[in-house]
Amino acid sequence: MANQVELHGWENSRVRTLRYVVADVFTDTPLAGNPVAVFTDARELEPEEMQRLAREMNLSESVFVLPAEADGHARIRIFTPGVELPFAGHPTLGTAFVLGQPMQLVEIRLETGMGVVPVVLEREGARIVFGRMAQPLPSWEPFGEPEALLAALGVERSELPIEVYDNGARHVYVALGSEGEVAALRPDFGALSDLPAVLGTNCFTGSRARWKTRMFAPAGGVAEDPATGSAAGPLAVHLARHGRIGFGEEIEISQGAEIGRPSTLYARADGSAEQLERVEVGGSAVIVARGEFRLP
């Protein structure tokens, strides 16, 4: 019996406790928006363990917080169930809510694979209610296989040029004619996965300040995303470049209703088509769960 107790104690001494917080992002309502798991201290984890934990959580993304290496408050690594991303929007905003509250910050600077992303936090009393992130400026180019993409989506045409934007996550954009068309989409996920490497296919419609979008990312392990912050900023750029909105005008984006996770995102692109100056994406978030993994 003594030997069993000693062995049990030795095993316990080797167990790592990995705490995480789940936040629903781009909503102020629990169980809506896009959930993200934020592992608040990932110093003991190797990258392959982060990937396995992200697969275990099975959310669009999971975040692993590490000590800062540059001039940020913390460094983050972002994983989908299948791949690591240098940048993603809702994980960055969710992490800002999780870390910004106990740190009592007005602005938190998060180091990502695309550089430092500052997030300005707005409060009502002590509670954070809104955050605005300055995203990495995207590049863009025509999409190489537009006919195959339209066929995979089951639509005939796009109202605007089909282009790919890259801000650390690669997104392609297809403009449809009505909200009904966007809501009725039933993509061929296998065909989407076979297309040239993009993280997400974004189908959208709208006018002036209000837009509706859906994002499909089967190649990244996410059939449909409830709210895609990394796609919201480039969408504002795309609309401004093609004259649907003005540079400097904020848009409101609705996403996620078709999968029961309604989300609201805000985006703005400043500058011009020749000289993009700033891309900002904002939204709310609410913390809904805390937990821990105990791993050897």
Any overview of this molecule?
With 296 residues, the protein is α+β, with helices and mostly antiparallel strands. Helices cover 23% and strands 41% of the residues. It contains seven helices and 18 strands. It has helices spanning 2-13, 47-57, 89-103, 146-153, 179-183, 189-193, 229-241, and strands at 16-25, 34-39, 61-66, 74-79, 84-85, 107-112, 115-124, 127-135, 139-142, 163-166, 170-175, 200-207, 210-217, 222-225, 251-255, 263-271, 276-283, 285-295. It has an 18-stranded mixed sheet that branches. Helix 3 (89-103) crosses helix 7. It starts with a helix and ends with a strand. Residues 1-11 have low confidence and may be disordered.
N-to-C CA distance: 23 Å
The largest pleated sheet is described as: 18 strands, mixed
Could you report the average pLDDT, rounded to the nearest whole number?
94
Shape descriptor: globular
The helix-strand sequence is: HEEHEEEHEEEEHEEHHEEEHEEEE
Radius of gyration: 20 Å
Number of helices: 7
The total beta strand count reads 18
Helix content class:
10-25%
Q: Report the sheet-strand fraction.
A: 35-45%
- Label the structural class: alpha+beta
Low-confidence sequence ranges? 1-11
Topology of this structure?
Layout lengths: L1 H12 L2 E10 L8 E6 L7 H11 L3 E6 L7 E6 L4 E2 L3 H15 L3 E6 L2 E10 L2 E9 L3 E4 L3 H8 L9 E4 L3 E6 L3 H5 L5 H5 L6 E8 L2 E8 L4 E4 L3 H13 L9 E5 L7 E9 L4 E8 L1 E11 L1
Parallel strand pairs: 2-3, 4-6, 11-12, 13-15
Antiparallel strand pairs: 1-2, 1-18, 3-4, 4-5, 6-7, 7-8, 8-17, 9-10, 10-11, 12-13, 13-14, 15-16, 16-17
Helix pairs in contact: 3-7
